[in-house]
Amino acid sequence: MTHAQPPAILARDVHRHYGADEARVAALDGVSLEVAPGTFTAIMGPSGSGKSTLLHCLAGLDAPDSGEIEIAGQRITGLGDSALTAFRRDRLGFVFQSFNLVPTLTAHENIVLPARLAGRAPDEAAVRRLAERLGLASRLTHRPGELSGGQQQRVAIARALLGSPDVIFADEPTGALDTATGDDVLALLRDCVDTDGRTVVMVTHDDRAAGVADRIVRMVDGRVAA
Ligand SMILES: Nc1ncnc2c1ncn2[C@@H]1O[C@H](COP(=O)(O)OP(=O)(O)OP(=O)(O)O)[C@@H](O)[C@H]1O
């Protein structure tokens, strides 16, 4: 008998509010969600609907007030800070609108940083293969300030992929890029799913997401729209 693979993400009745009294905002008002492994999900919806809050809670960057979140069968709600930090570093990949690269490090050093922080020797052959694939082979010694926005985002994607993460979380990954460069980044994220079997969850306002995602989760007023 084979055991079914657990969902890449399982969220049960997640609540997260900000502020108190009249200023109280229910950013997440009972969100339940299941994401299958090896799929591309886009979280969309109006400004203030809770997309970023949801992504941050799913990725263990923010803690919900109540509810449960599991990633690949591991419950992350209730983990302590250091366990959660290690979980994010070892099991998740992140791609942000603002790239979040360390400006004083080269592209190569940025790509291998999570492995180094985890005390692992980076797989240099894998770094070379990723750099070739992402068109970064001649850019590895450059610092982020010497790279275009699209190149910086590709460095962030290489960094995310190198760790073979259970889930890659992307927060407005095309928000700072022109149309053509944004298309390239969306295609690369799609390729992380199709070629590498990764699970990608992306928050975006970008209507082109519909062309690459397997599923659109629409948020309205802190809830997943039916
Ligand atoms: N740190 C915070 N303090 C207070 N309120 C917050 C905070 N972060 C978010 N909120 C509120 O929670 C709600 C959801 O915010 P969130 O950023 O998740 O929405 P969003 O859908 O990602 O919006 P956008 O598309 O504009 O980025 C909003 O009403 C917002 O004002």
TrEMBL record:
Keyword ATP-binding (UniProt): yes
SUPFAM superfamilies in UniProt: P-loop containing nucleoside triphosphate hydrolases
InterPro entries in the record: AAA+_ATPase, ABC_transporter-like_ATP-bd, ABC_transporter-like_CS, ABC_transpr_LolD-like, MacB-like_ATP-bd, P-loop_NTPase
Domain ABC transporter: 9-226
Keywords: ATP-binding, Nucleotide-binding, Transport
Pfam families for the chain: ABC_tran
A GO cellular component entry from the record: plasma membrane
A single GO molecular function term of this UniProt record: ATP hydrolysis activity
Name recorded for this polypeptide: ABC transport system ATP-binding protein
Organism lineage string: Bacteria, Bacillati, Actinomycetota, Actinomycetes, Micrococcales
